[in-house]
Amino acid sequence: MKKYILGNTEPTKQRRWVRWLLELAVFAVIIFGLRAWQHRGMLDGDAPDFERIATNGTSIHLQAYRGKPVLLHFWADWCPMCAMEQGAISAIAKDHAVITVAFPPDGEEDIPHYMARKQITDWVTIVDADGKLAQQYGVHGVPANYIIDKNGKISFSEVGISSGWGLRIRLWLAELLA
Fold first, then answer.
1. Sign (positive or negative) of CA dihedral 80, 45, 170, 56
2. What number of helices (H) and strands (E) belong to the chain?
3. CA atoms in the 13 A half-sphere facing the CB of 161
4. Alpha-carbon torsion 104, 136, 138, 125, what sign?
5. Which of 15, 27, 159, 170 could form a disulfide with 38 if both were Cys (CB 3.0 to 4.6 A apart)?
6. Phi, psi (5° rounding) for residue 45?
7. Which residues on adjacent β-strands are paired with residue 99?
8. Overall pTM surpassing 0.85 (yes/no)
9. Nearest-CA neighbor of 76 among 120, 128, 148?
10. CA angle, 132 as apex, 157 and 68 as ends, to 5°?
11. What's the pLDDT tens digit per position in 36-48?
12. For 157-176, what is the mean pLDDT?
C-alpha cells in the first residue's frame, strides 16, 4: 500500500476514471454538436417530388420510384469524401434504387466527363447546376444522403461520409419500417 505525503498530487484510480469519463462526455458533446450543426436545415417528412433530366438523357421523376426505398445521394466531383464513397454508391446502385445529384464546378458538361473518366456507369445522375434541388432538400454540404421509403417519406438523412454497409442497413430499415 502506498503512503501519500501531504501535497502529493498523484491521482487515485477512481479520480482517473472520473477524469476519463468527463473527457469522453465532453468529446461526445462536441461530436454530437458538430453532427447537429451539419444536419441543420436538412429536410424530413415528405420528400419533395421533382422531375429532372439525367446525364444519360432520361427523365427522372421521383414519384416513379414509389413502392421501393431509394437512396438520394448529393455529391460533387471536387469533394474528396464524395470520391471515397463512389465505390460504395456504385455497389448499392446494383441492388437498390439510387439517384445521385451532382454539383458541377464549371458547368453541366463536366460531370459526364468526370463520370466517364472515373468509369461510373451505373449511376442515375442529375446535375443540379442551379442548386435548386439541393436547396429544396436543405443540403448545405456534400456528401449528403437521403433514404426515402416506398411511400415517399424521408426515413434517414446524413451529411458527411457514410459507409456502404450503413447505407444498406438504412435502406433495409426503410423498407422494413414503411
1. negative
2. 5, 8
3. 11
4. negative
5. 159
6. 90, -140
7. 72, 124
8. no
9. 128
10. 45
11. 666 676 778 999 9
12. 94
